[in-house]
Automatic annotation (TrEMBL):
Belongs to the resistance-nodulation-cell division (RND) (TC 2.A.6) family. MmpL subfamily. Its main location: membrane. Residues 196-328 form the SSD domain. InterPro entries: MMPL_dom, Mycobact_MmpL, SSD. Keywords: Cell membrane, Membrane, Transmembrane, Transmembrane helix. It is found in: Cell membrane. This is MMPL family transporter. The keyword Electron transport does not apply. It is a multi-pass membrane protein. Residues 344-374 are annotated as: Disordered. It comes from Streptomyces anthocyanicus. The chain crosses the membrane at residues 179-199, 206-227, 233-254, 266-292, 304-329, 393-411, 549-568, 575-596, 616-637, 664-683, 689-717. It holds the Pfam family MMPL.
Length: 765
């Protein structure tokens, strides 16, 4: 592996113009394909295998056109204190509002709240239902603007008028996620490298990778049924890993130059060693993201595959485009003090046509000057590694106790899908939600939908009526709407309004009660029924996600364990990596529950309403963080493994790994955290939750697990850390991530032996 990548890096450096042009052609071709591609389909929100989804499917089957009725909205009208919306002084304003909305684009019908009797008992609140001819995703901005304008005009009558529902919610307020992440990355890279060229190169390649990924998603969206929404996660992951992988290779390139290698040789060695770590780190991320497909949720599968594609592109760009760009700026990538140090005379001799010093073998290590510069660059990380080396037990116990304590709130984790109640009070959707809850009760915003299949009943109408009576008699149900039959009169839909809010635990208990008593009801009536609606759907999705978590972990962790077993040729190192991951992800869940569910510190993040954690969050967090955690594992421990292979004692190899990779891992973690934290600047609570969860997970894993827990365990294990049964050692393939084969090879010829054209290109660069 190392030898193959070494040749790839040298070849890309030498043929840098062709490599750069090839990538430019690929990006241009994919962008043109995206521009000519058909409109992407909607991401499927279906959840196969759950009762709520089966109930929706039954409605669509027995009520033809129900799904095609499309989006709807509710216009909520609230009279001033002490007045009623039914007063004659408001009649004209309500009539005008209904007429204006009915004339809007894509509107199929509007109910008059006074004629439809959708007025609260005290007369203070009423609502009008707006039905559209298209689905929520196809409501145009013009349609939403027309509704908003009509609502604004109605407010001049003295009524409080708000609008909610799926047709009202447009795109959430955009944050500065990508820009913040790239901005912080630029600052961190500049501090890390001390060179504008070295700081800019990872950013350039990351942007190229993300642009290619997003264009590919658009180009393939129509054929694969993948909408641009699948690109959100791909963009987030693509920026993070694109910068991190290029950072690792550029950092190794600078190290090899400091050891006295010429530019092309340094590029080859960087790709042969750090590039090997990038390949296997990328494979772990791809396994974790592509593994989301085992859950059986179409939207998660598409998101995972799109993000995995972004990682593959980032790896390919790192192995080819990064060394090619190094060829254009071979000396500009070096820090100022290095450029004026030992490498500067070599560059001058090269420009005069004389050869550079022979390349040093990897086993031999750097010269004194290079070693001194390496120690200076990693001084803080070496001091920390020495501290861990002297006190491994307190560091191990401290990191484990800290993460364990942070994980305790996760024991109370509740899953659901926050709705309008989680939006800021500055939005009309949230104000409409609150007005309906005040006027009609908290359960009005999340009625239970009961679908009754009476085909097998002797008298379908009587059977449906009996089911409706039993629902009305259930404790916790405040009202039951008259059944709505289909054309064949053998299936009915019943709306039951609970006494509590959709996300309340009491409402969840009500759903369980109705389902538990279902057998007796079905036996007495001869009809079957299923329960769906907001609360029931949350319950079913949460159960599906929970049930899928263990199989998902077994698949992903199992495959990653085998991969790390091959990479590190050790049984205990992959086990330690998995244990550290469980600590960091547990602490992340605890932080999510503390803020977004229990509300402690929620105001600091702009979260106005707490509630259950998003149902898909655990699987997304586990998948993404596992892949990224293994990134840091490979980056850091591969250098320790390299030192062990080259003859260092295990305890000293820990220090060597930190000397060379500690600063790189720290910079990568800060960049990745800033990318994820940037998505918390959006207005949606769900985006804040995703950004926060990923950001704190990376912080815990990089700075507590990989910087404290991992080295402490390795120091305590000593030689045993690298133990591998002999029989297994013979069976496993040798991939040579540590570049041992490169240390045994014949030194590469000096740059003076390079053909004149290539040499002149390097001089001009």
């Amino acid at each position: 592996m190392a030898t193959l990548l070494y040749r790839l890096g040298r070849g890309a450096f030498r043929r840098r113009r062709w490599v750069t042009l090839a990538w430019a052609a690929v990006v241009l071709g994919v962008v043109l394909g995206a521009m000519s591609a058909g409109e992407a389909g909607d991401d499927s929100d279906s959840m196969p295998g759950i009762e709520s989804q089966h109930a929706f499917d039954l409605i669509n089957e027995r009520f033809p056109g129900a799904e095609a009725e499309g989006a709807d909205a509710r216009i909520v009208l609230v009279a001033p204190d002490g007045r009623q919306v039914t007063a004659s002084e408001y009649r004209a304003a309500i009539d005008t509002l209904v007429a204006e909305v009915a004339d809007g684009p894509q509107v199929a019908a509007v109910s008059d709240p006074l004629d439809a009797a959708t007025v609260s008992q005290d007369g203070s609140t009423a609502y009008a239902t707006v039905t559209y001819e298209v689905t929520e995703d196809n409501v145009t901005d013009a349609g939403r603007a027309d509704l908003t304008a009509a609502v604004e005009r109605a407010r001049t009558s003295g009524l409080t008028v708000e609008a909610g529902g799926g047709a009202v919610a447009g795109e959430p307020p955009a944050g500065i996620g990508e820009f913040l992440g790239i901005g912080v990355a630029a600052v961190v890279l500049l501090i890390t490298f001390g060179s504008l060229a070295a700081a800019g190169l990872p950013l350039i390649t990351a942007v190229v990778g993300v642009a290619l990924t997003l264009a590919s998603i658009v180009a393939l969206g129509s054929a694969l049924g993948m909408s641009t929404a699948s690109g959100d996660l791909a963009m987030m992951i693509g920026i993070a890993v694109g910068v991190d992988y290029a950072l690792l290779v550029v950092s190794r390139y600078r190290e090899e130059r400091a050891e006295g290698h010429d530019a092309r040789e340094a590029a080859g060695l960087a790709v042969g060693t750090a590039g090997s770590a990038v390949v296997f780190a990328g494979l772990t991320v791809v396994i974790a993201l592509a593994g989301l497909s085992v859950i059986g949720v179409p939207s998660l599968t598409k998101m995972g595959l799109a993000a995995a594609g972004a990682v593959v592109i980032a790896v390919l760009i790192t192995l080819t485009l990064v060394p090619a760009l190094c060829g254009f700026w071979p000396d500009a990538l070096l820090a100022r003090r290095v450029g004026k140090g030992r490498s500067a005379p070599s560059a001058r001799r090269f420009r005069k046509g004389r050869s550079t010093p022979p390349a040093r073998r990897l086993r031999g290590g750097p010269g004194r000057g290079a070693a001194r510069r390496t120690r200076e660059a990693g001084a803080w990380s070496v001091r920390w590694a020495r501290f861990v080396q002297r006190r491994p037990v307190p560091v191990l116990l401290g990191s484990a106790v800290l993460l364990g304590a942070l994980a305790v709130p996760a024991l109370d984790l509740r899953l659901g899908m926050p709705g309008d109640e989680a939006k800021p009070t500055s939005t009309t959707e949230r104000r409409a939600y609150d007005a309906l809850a005040d006027g009609f009760g908290p359960g009005f915003n999340g009625p239970l939908t009961v679908v009754v299949d009476a085909r097998q009943a002797d008298d379908p109408r009587s059977a449906v009526a009996a089911v409706s009576d039993r629902l009305a008699a259930t404790a916790g149900v405040v009202s039951v709407a008259p059944p709505r039959f289909n054309a064949a009169k053998d299936t009915a839909v019943i709306q039951a309004v609970p006494a509590t809010a959709p996300t309340s635990e009491r409402t969840e208990e009500l759903v369980h009660t109705i389902r538990d008593e279902r057998h007796a009801t079905e036996s007495a009536t001869g009809a079957t029924f299923e329960v769906t609606g907001t609360t029931a759907l949350n319950i079913d999705v949460a159960r599906k996600m929970t049930d899928a978590l263990i199989p998902y972990l077994l698949v992903v962790v199992g495959l990653a364990f085998l991969l790390l077993l091959v990479v590190f040729r050790s049984v205990l190192v992959p086990l330690k990596a998995a244990l550290g991951f469980l600590l960091s992800v547990g602490a992340s869940f605890g932080a999510l529950v503390t803020i977004f569910q229990n509300g402690h510190g929620a105001g600091l993040l702009g979260v106005e309403e707490t509630g259950p954690v998003m149902s898909t969050m655990p699987l997304m967090l586990v998948g993404i963080v596992f892949g990224l955690a293994m990134d840091y594992q490979v980056f850091l421990v591969s250098r320790m493994r390299e030192a062990v292979v080259h003859g260092e004692r295990p305890a000293e190899a820990v220090v060597t790994g930190f000397r060379h990779s500690g600063r790189v891992v720290t910079a990568a973690a800060v960049i990745m955290t800033s990318v994820f934290a940037g998505f918390m600047t959006g207005g949606e609570t769900l985006l804040k939750m995703v950004g926060f969860g990923l950001a704190v997970a990376v912080l815990f894993d990089a700075f507590v697990v990989r910087m404290a827990f991992v080295p402490a365990v390795l120091v305590l294990l000593g030689e045993r850390a690298w133990w591998l049964p002999r029989r297994l050692d013979r069976l496993l393939p040798r991939v040579d991530v540590e570049g041992e084969a490169l240390g045994r090879r014949t030194p590469a010829p000096a740059l003076a032996a390079v053909p004149d054209t290539d040499r002149q290109d390097t001089v001009r660069a």
